[in-house]
């Protein structure tokens, strides 16, 4: 359980997330994920990283129960910094990162996937940001890398999900396959990348990041500032308490 890394000797390092039951990652887990991805990229024997998950879904975001069970703002600050670190690690990893998305990919999962280089998904995968239903903001930066601008706004304001098939249509998901074929499909594209001269691919990753029109790390931290504002106002706690108690969004009052 937790974050594990395995290397196959063929240039592929696989980082696996496993936090049952839904892969809601605790604060420290985000930092460990960041370290695993960055460490893999620093290893000259690694040509590509696969990021995958065990269990029911790829990622359910931060562990809200941990946050609500902790006095003060320590857990909130740690979760926000941890998410920023993990999202940034996927982006800054010296080699391409292929993500294999199964089931649900929500909240912080969007930050990971939006910063990845290649996305493959199971045919039951859904993607979304329930942030407004949790009294928080964030990862619109990354959702905007997956869908067109007005679709991003619609999904963000309504907290609706988008399917893997829709993302394949938009061109952000490389391939949608049955869940049983997901790992093999991720490995298939990873092997194609790993077969290239890693010296060239590493330069390519740095070059592509350098021509991005949006600084994804700065823009995400800007978004997080509004999350802190909602927390200071007490609004976020109202929404998180309701979610912990009922598992449902807080009704509008």
From TrEMBL:
Key word Transcription regulation present: no
GO MF terms, alphabetically ordered: enoyl-CoA hydratase activity
Keyword tags: Lipid metabolism, Lyase
Domain of life: Bacteria
EC number: 4.2.1.17
Transmembrane feature ranges: none
Pfam families: ECH_1 (PF00378)
Family the entry assigns: Belongs to the enoyl-CoA hydratase/isomerase family.
NCBIfam families membership: PRK07938.1
Protein name per its UniProtKB record: Probable enoyl-CoA hydratase EchA20
Natural source organism: Rhodococcus aetherivorans
